[in-house]
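Narrative of activities, Objective 1.

The group set out to show that a structural description can be obtained from nothing but a protein's sequence at a throughput compatible with the screening campaign. Below is one input-output pair from the validation batch, recorded exactly as produced.
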Amino acid sequence: MTLPASRPLYLFAFIACVLLLAAAYYMEYVMGLLPCPLCMVQRFAFFIIGLTCLAAVLHNPQPKAGRKRSRAARAYAVGITLLAIFGGATASRQIWLQHQPADQLPSCLPSLDYMIDVLPMMEMLTLLFSGTADCAKVTWTFLGLSIAECTLLAFIGFALFGLVQLLRRED
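Output recorded for this entry:
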């Protein structure tokens, strides 16, 4: 089975990122679901994956004579895979928090803007990934899956996409 050329696949992945981010902003501004800090990290991961896919579409790296893949093509694939793993780990953390008793989680954190402005980087990251009761709330589901579970599936899809792009041969 032959895969389509890389460029249309990267374009499809970019469009998927745009649609995921559009859904997130719809949920925030139309449905009134406020994102927790872990949700913001996941949005950032989708944004960077989308930018990487767009760069791959615009750049369209071609292999040099005698090579299976260009360095740039491998770099795009590795970048997408690593970003998807990071995003998946963040979504997994949020899913874990959702299955913890609410009374065992801190009640709230300062806003993300405040933490970025005031706290040292390591302290901010520690607080951010420790999670709160806000991160553990399941306020919306789709087919029985929470938002974090849906994003984990999307990150798994992007990680697989990156691996396929990394391992494929350009003919």
